[in-house]
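S2.1 Query sequence (5-oxoprolinase)
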Amino acid sequence: MPEVLYEEVIEVDERLIPEQPGCHLPGSDTWPRVEGCSGVTLLVQRPLDLGGLRRELEGVLARGIQSLAVLLLHSYMWPGHEEQVGALARELGFRQVSLSSAVAGMARAVPRGFTACADAYLTPGIRRYLRGFCHGFADQLRGVRVLFMRSDGGLTPMGSFGGARAILSGPAAGVVGYARTTYNSLDGTPVIGFDMGGTSTDVSRYAGELEHVFEATTAGVPIQAPQLDINTVAAGGGSRLFFRSGLYVVGPESAGAHPGPACYRKGE
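Output structure tokens follow.
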């Protein structure tokens, strides 16, 4: 099993209950009501304790953790409490705050939480890469419309690119590329994509339209986000072979490449 992406967990003491016709809970007459995204009314049985949460988040921040994923059970129906937590975290100085309701606003809490964690884990690194990318251009691309490809094969502005929607952006670009250049719509013969890199290999199929999945497992982490149907094997052209504990294993160590790609200023 892969290591978890988070270092600490804070339990947020709040509770929303979807209102059910004909079902009356003791004390519910005095509970605030909010309207959910689908028009469902929710009862706020226990509001957020922002004061207590502030103290806990300050402690987390003091321990050097600057990236935060927020998951509340019914936020896919009403994101108000998550948005309050997010606003508080940004006020305190967290550099990255990923709300599960914004990253993957779907019903199932566990994969939604994993997806928010992956987003919080990956986005800071992607932001650093984008800053370095911009510094390589005159005026740092100010005023220039730059689009990046997401895992679902669509394009998004640079400011919106990151995290859970970028995990398969490279392989997705490969699928879009070979779909446009190799598929013959006259005979409709499906095309198989085989994209081998240094330490992984991506396999896909195109038969006239892009095929999507809405939940997949990447590196052992469930991701609840639209992405092209690409199967990845953790072995590539540079993967090293070992015997470990009597078992034959492949990678993840790589032999590397020298001089390497010209685009990395290693070639001729």
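The CA atoms of residues 34 and 131 lie 40 Å apart. Residues 149-264 form one domain.
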